[in-house]
Design goal:
The protein is built from seven helices and three strands. With 184 residues, the protein is mainly alpha-helical. The radius of gyration is 21 Å and the shape is elongated.
Length: 184
């Protein structure tokens, strides 16, 4: 590699990295660059998810609720309390979200086994909307990855990210599917 070649593509992190670490020589530039890239990728994937949700007449939060219900497996139902806990949102926010989803015909009240809880379940329309949005999301992500990485590169990325995730989970515990920072 010649002296003027960069080891990484010129992205928004690379463009700012030298300036960031100039004041703090104790900061490892490679570690900082990796952390910054992971954070920015997360925010950009959140934008993609919001766009796909809107394309499918959903909010990202509505889609998260439908996803949580779908992950529960047949008959695709859960209590509002369990959903709120899984999504890391308040019961009030969950109530508003469920009202919107019921009004749209995407979820409905389900019979409660104990007579006290009032579970909700995906309707056929809700499952169809969830599947359409998820198909669109995964197709768009596939194109993004395929345009940026070869299959071998994607395999290598998964190995590297898997190692990092395992290390972080070893120290901090497993991350939830829908993390919400508690100290914000």
């Amino acid at each position: 590699m010649s002296g003027d070649e960069q080891p990484f593509p010129q992205d928004s992190v690379q463009a700012e990295l030298e300036r960031w670490v100039a004041d703090m020589p104790e900061v490892d530039p490679l570690t900082e660059a990796a952390r910054q890239r992971i954070g920015r990728l997360t925010r950009l994937f959140d934008r993609l998810l919001s766009q796909v949700a809107a394309d499918n007449e959903l909010t990202a939060g509505d889609w998260a609720a439908l996803s949580a219900l779908h992950r529960s497996g047949p008959p695709y139902q859960a209590s509002p309390t369990a959903l709120a806990q899984q999504l890391g949102i308040t019961s009030g926010t969950m109530s508003v979200r469920l009202s919107r989803l019921v009004q749209a015909g995407l979820v409905e009240a389900a019979a409660a086994a104990d007579g006290r809880s009032k579970p909700v379940q995906l309707t056929a329309h809700g499952q169809s909307r969830w599947r359409a949005a998820t198909r669109e999301r995964t197709a768009r992500e596939h194109v993004l990855f395929a345009e940026a990485l070869s299959r071998e590169g994607l395999t290598e990325l998964n190995v590297l990210l898997g190692g990092l995730l395992a290390r972080l989970e070893g120290e901090f515990g497993q991350a939830g599917r829908h993390d919400v920072p508690k100290d914000v």
